[in-house]
Specification:
Blueprint (H helix, E strand, L loop, with lengths): L16 H18 L14 E2 L10 E5 L5 E3 L2 E3 L1 H11 L4 E6 L5 H13 L4 E4 L2 E2 L2
Parallel strand pairs: 1-7, 2-5, 5-6
Antiparallel strand pairs: 2-3, 3-4
Length: about 130
């Protein structure tokens, strides 16, 4: 009595087509999804720590000062004179948040705060990281 082999002459193969398609779909998904990341932190500004931080209910105007002492108003590089003109446009009832890098000197922040006071803007906040 002869015993027949249950093994076929063809070896089992793994189809790579669907796996390759899935890898390309994931790659495409992550490449497109990367563009939808929030643009709030596009500048390299390291905020100081604070124990108390308040949340804003409406979108404030942001004045950022980076480590190179460049001033940005709502993401646009401005001079101090241009900052004054932009503040005239938003009006004295606007809310302005100052995001200053913790590595710059106190005088640079005070200069921006002086411009805000000169423009009679009273709703001023300073951004900080919540320290737990």
């Amino acid at each position: 009595m002869a015993i027949k082999s249950l093994r076929s002459k063809e070896e089992a193969r793994v189809e790579m087509t669907s796996m390759t398609d899935m890898v390309f779909l994931l790659l495409t998904f992550f490449m497109i999804g990367y563009n939808f990341l929030p643009l709030d932190d596009k500048l390299d500004v390291k905020l100081p720590d604070s124990r108390a931080v308040s949340k804003q209910t409406h979108k404030p105007n942001i004045v950022e000062i980076n480590v190179e002492k460049q001033v940005f108003f709502d993401g646009v590089l401005v001079t101090y004179g241009e900052l004054e003109r932009k503040l005239d446009e938003v009006g004295k009832d606007a809310t302005v948040i100052i995001k200053a890098d913790k590595r710059i000197t106190h005088g640079d922040v005070v200069r921006v705060m002086g411009i805000l006071k000169y423009k009679n803007i009273k709703n001023v906040g300073i951004a900080a990281l919540l320290r737990e």
